[in-house]
């Protein structure tokens, strides 16, 4: 069994009645053939070389904007800042960072 397939199974069990749209890039571990995709998950593959369409990249950019070109007196202080930011990532904040109109339009058009 592939790790990605196991992830999909575990993800499917979280709120199993909920439809999950999972945006994936072209990473090798997403390209597994003949894997079983749970019924409550739809995979949306973004085109190659389009990191701007990857919601995870938007989250990384949000974090980077808060630490890049800043002075931290120690690695521990930088780690504290990153931990603080990760703890701030509520579902609402993630939606506000990653809420591409393209994806919401596709969703409403197809569901």
Tags for this entry?
111 residues, mainly alpha, 2 domains, 50% helix
Envelope shape: globular
How many strand segments? Answer: 2
Helix content: 40-55%
Mean pLDDT: 86
Distance between the termini: 30 Å
- Number of spatially distinct domains: 2
Total helical elements: 5
Can you offer a commentary on this structure?
With 111 residues, the chain is mainly alpha-helical. It has two domains: 1-45, no CATH class; 50-111, no CATH class. Helices cover 50% and strands 9% of the residues. It contains five helices and two strands; from the N terminus they run H-E-E-H-H-H-H. The chain has a two-stranded parallel sheet with strand order 1-2.
Map the helices and strands.
Layout: H1 3-13, E1 20-24, E2 41-45, H2 55-67, H3 75-88, H4 91-98, H5 101-110
In short:
The chain is about 50% helix and about 10% strand.
């Amino acid at each position: 069994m592939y790790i990605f397939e196991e992830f999909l199974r575990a993800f499917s069990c979280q709120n199993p009645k909920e439809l999950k749209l999972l945006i994936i890039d072209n990473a090798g571990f997403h390209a597994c053939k003949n894997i079983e995709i749970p019924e409550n998950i739809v995979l949306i593959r973004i085109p190659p070389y389009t990191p701007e369409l990857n919601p995870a990249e938007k989250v990384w950019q949000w974090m980077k904007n808060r630490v890049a070109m800043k002075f931290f007196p120690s690695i521990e202080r930088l780690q504290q800042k990153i931990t603080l930011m990760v703890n701030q990532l509520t579902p609402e904040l993630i939606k506000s960072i990653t809420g591409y109109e393209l994806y919401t339009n596709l969703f409403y058009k197809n569901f």
